[in-house]
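Internal tracking record. Fields below are filled automatically when a chain is submitted to the structure queue. Please do not edit lines marked as system-generated. If the sequence contains nonstandard residues, flag them in the REMARKS field before resubmitting.
Queue: standard
Priority: normal
Entity type: single polypeptide chain
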Amino acid sequence: MQTIYDWVTVAIFGALIVLFLHRSTAQEEPKDNILQYLPACIGCALANYVGNEGHGAIAFAIIVVVLVYIAYVLKPFNLKF
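SYSTEM-GENERATED OUTPUT FOLLOWS
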């Protein structure tokens, strides 16, 4: 945990874990599949790697894409698009 990319991607990954656990323990049947979380997790790992290699702009773009994916596909907080 030495760079900002480490902190940001771990925070996003932690939020994904909380979202998954919250939805998996709900009374109703989950509307999402565990495989829908995979692209966001891979995106976090990729952004962290690219950022640590010194490509900050690309890492920032990947993080933005991951956040858009989470908002559009996983819909936390019942976001409507």
